[in-house]
Design goal:
Length: 289
């Protein structure tokens, strides 16, 4: 299919940047860690769900760069289940301290009341938003593309909170088109991306979220396993698997002009596979290999 249309697809392996601070999370943390050091903070506090790549990355970064880390985790029911959860178990081993809160409190996590409560409990801290997106994170993601990437016509990436794609948009050439593949069903993403993106050379492909955030089906699992077998490249089920699935579908449907050169950013997230497999196993679905 690729050969017939003269299309090339390259994968930029950001997942290989660091063994534990995965892909785009490494980029997003870099300038935030510098800022936290400059401001003399010794504690990082952040938010996330049970299998969050961001939680794992912050825990590992804290250990490596000498910060105490606190993870505010969505779901009180998880408090007794840390050892069963590969992501939380890893984060705890890196030294992260957890506070498990209800889904309702989690929704209000950015309110002044909750911030005050957390400060009373943990003292002063450098706050990283859920998913890690802020202006410094976008600045870090602007460094994903280098001079060698200028020859591609399309830059593709998965989208969660939109920080990564905003960085790519800012550093892409005007003649390049940036395509985002949302991992969730969310109309708010376009506005979130516009907050940080300085150009208009981008679009979202909304048809590949497989029903929503962290939702997977047998077809996606088979696709991920197949792709790894054929190319040697492992994909995660929440972000990169859905993006690559989407790119190949668009190629098949003739979306890209003949001769297009496509670059897909592998943003990492592989730490989430064991956690997803515990969920798949409970449902009796095939596992990611
Ligand atoms: C967090 C994450 C994303 C989403 O990045 P945003 O900047 O939030 O859009 C994409 N891929 C992987 C593997 C991630 O862990």
């Amino acid at each position: 299919m690729l050969r017939e249309q003269g299309i090339t697809l390259h994968v930029k392996r950001e997942d290989l940047l660091h063994p534990h601070i995965s892909g785009n999370k490494y980029r997003k943390l870099r300038y935030n860690l510098e800022e936290a050091k400059d401001k003399r903070h010794n504690t990082l506090l952040t938010f996330g769900g049970a299998y969050s790549n961001h939680i794992a990355a912050v825990a590992a970064a804290g250990k490596e760069y000498g910060f105490r880390t606190i993870g505010i985790i969505r779901g009180e029911e998880l408090s007794g289940k840390v050892t069963e959860n590969p992501t939380l178990r890893f984060a705890e081993k890196q030294g992260m301290q957890f506070r498990f809160i209800s889904r309702q409190d989690f929704r209000g996590k950015n309110s002044p009341e909750i911030t005050a409560r957390l400060q009373a409990e943990f003292g002063s801290f450098f706050l990283l938003p859920e998913g890690g997106t802020n202006a410094l994170a976008v600045k870090g993601c602007e460094e994903i593309l280098g001079p060698d990437d200028a020859a591609f016509d399309y830059i593709c990436c998965p989208v969660g909170t939109g920080g990564t794609i905003a960085g790519l948009i800012n550093s892409a050439k005007d003649c390049q088109q940036v395509l985002g593949f949302p991992a969730l069903n969310g109309d708010f993403l376009t506005n979130d991306i516009r907050k940080f993106a300085k150009k208009d050379n981008w679009a979202l492909q909304n048809g590949f979220h497989f029903g929503g955030y962290a939702k997977v089906n047998t077809e996606l699992v088979h696709f991920i396993n197949d792709f790894k077998q054929k190319t040697g490249i492992p994909l995660d089920p929440v972000y990169t698997g859905k993006m690559i699935y989407g790119i190949l579908k668009l190629i098949k449907d003739g979306y890209f002009k003949n001769g297009s050169k496509i670059l897909a950013i592998h943003t990492g997230g592989l730490q989430g596979i064991p956690g997803m497999n515990t969920v798949l196993k409970k449902k009796g679905l095939p596992l990611i290999r």
